[in-house]
Amino acid sequence: MQKLIDTTKSIFQEKQTLPFAVYRSVKEQRMVNVPIIKPLLIFILSGNKKLGMEETEINCPSGSFVFLSNMPNISMRNIPSDQAYYALLIEFEYSDFDCLEHREFSANTHFQGEIAPRLEYTLQQFVEWAAFSPAEMWHIRRQEILLALASLGYKQVGSVMKPPTLTHEVHTIINANLSHDIDAATISSMLAMSESTLRRKLSAEGISFQVIKDRAKLGYGLHLVQTSNKPIGLIAEQCGYISQSRFTDKFKQLFNITPTALRKTIMSKSGK
Question: 163 phi and psi, to 5 degrees?
């Protein structure tokens, strides 16, 4: 795994836009209500990851992966061991799954496995290729990972993607317009429905427009805190918050930790 860790560190430091993210920490991280809007594949390269609540906790040791379906939110613990916690995360688009022959929708929200040598080699290629590939081609290598999992016997990969809901559509639109304070009226117009219909349909899915908006903005803030060394004030601004204190309050309310406290658990960009 060390070669993969070294390669991701090198590339992640050089490029800001990549088809994967790296989360790392030298102290334990505890977060609740982490939104998973699109299918997310997490490779734990060192340390340990625990997902869910204590009564339904999923344990993900070093050298394993967990593939999460798109779900409202989940609790996470990132735990360093004798080495720092280090994980590689890949978010998938719904269209990526078109490459699979057998696709079934099930009630399962995840599946796990070991990072076998063939899968590790596929990941190594994915990471190295990301250093020079254009964004328009990222889906090709994501599909290679899906096919590699299927060839290793993980047939669940065909059912990990749940049908996108209106909630997912709204979240995607907001996420693409984080620099603007996009409102429900604008989004309802983009979706060719009235604002009242939009709110009614979201209510039927058990959520409100404001909750989706907060999750989209704060989810991006969580990503920036974890993957960059940008000042918290700048992150707040990029997430659409005029006030850093307002961003901090909302962040703490959702994830049960402040951006500053979370940042303190993370190693420096140099890995020291």
Answer: -60, 130
Quick check: 270 pLDDT over 60?
A: no
Number of separate domains in the chain: 2
Q: What CATH number should be reported for the domain holding residue 201? A: 1.10.10.60
Burial profile 69-78: b = 16 or more Cβ within 10 angstroms, e = fewer: bbeebbbbbb
Residues 154 and 206 occupy one common structural domain? no
- Residue 266 is given by DSSP the state S
Residues 6+ apart with CB under 8 A from 94: 38, 39, 161, 164
Across the chain, mean pLDDT equals 90
Q: Is residue 272 part of a domain?
A: no
Estimate to the nearest angstrom the gap between the alpha carbon of 145 and the chain centroid: 16
Q: Which long-range contacts (CB under 8 A, 24 or more apart) does 127-135 make?
A: 127/4, 127/7, 127/8, 127/11, 127/20, 127/88, 128/7, 128/11, 130/11, 130/15, 130/18, 130/19, 130/20, 131/11, 131/14, 131/15, 133/19, 135/17, 135/19
* Residue 22 in this model has a pLDDT that exceeds 50: yes
Task: Read off the pLDDT band of 55 (50, 70, 90).
Answer: low
Predicted TM-score (pTM) above 0.70: yes
Q: Given 158, 189, 217, which residue is the final one in a domain?
A: 158
Last residue of a domain, one of 111, 129, 158: 158
Mean pLDDT for 103-117 is 83
